[in-house]
Amino acid sequence: MSKLTIGRDQVAVETGVSLSTTQRLRQLLFYVLLAAASLMMLIPFFWMISTSLKTDEYVLSIPLQFIPRPLTFNSYLALAETFPMLRMFWNSLVVAVLTTAGQLIVSAMAAYAFARIEFRGRNILFLLYLATLMIPSQVTIIPLFILMRYLGWINTYPGLILPGIFTAFGTFLLRQFFLTLPHELEEAAFIDGASRWTIFWRIIMPLSRPALATLGVFAFMGSWNAFLWPLFIVRNEQLMTLPVGLATLHGRWLTQWNLVMAGAVITIIPMLIVYLFAQRYFVQGIVTTGLKG
To answer: Number of C-alpha atoms within 13 angstroms, CB side, residue 48?
Structure first.
């Protein structure tokens, strides 16, 4: 009997060691695949930075050089001298920040109405509003341009900013998050005499920081990278945004790729800063808005 027990224990120990080794091998393979996928995604960024630091004769040289030799910042200097980079950077920043702020406020108010206020036809109206996501932006760009012309907003900041404030995606995203918040918070606030406006600003909005941070990143990236609408609405170089301005660097017969890549590097920096900033508040929002039952 004792021999049988010892045999079972030995088999169990060997099986445990075997399972542990198998799990470690699987984790190692998983991390190797993740590292390979990350490297594949980072290669274009490395190549962009490398090209921006090369001279003209080495941009398309064979064999390819990932490490520029010689390394030079002349592309950035030439871009600053021949291109109104600071003005276009400022235009993009103003448009992206104001569009993001407006989109957060408008989407949050619409989402609160659809999620927390009972009224007849609410779900049908929300479905109709959501159905606008299926309409490509290219279909509405001509009617929107005609409307901007009637309002006199061609070559103006309002023409660049206001159309991007209203979005069904932002309303949908925040509505789904608002639905997860407990109604007891609102009921307690109503008992204390709080109005809808007070509840929205002092209870719903602070609890929705994770969703607001997520939407803020999407809105900023979408507005910062927008090309088609700014191309339509702006003809004045003093109001051009970075994507439209960088497109002018492409010549008909010749393109200076080191200048284009230098502009692309400068364009990416604000998005990285916004992402890191939003990521910090995203984690903080999850930690500080936990509800204990």
So the answer is: 15
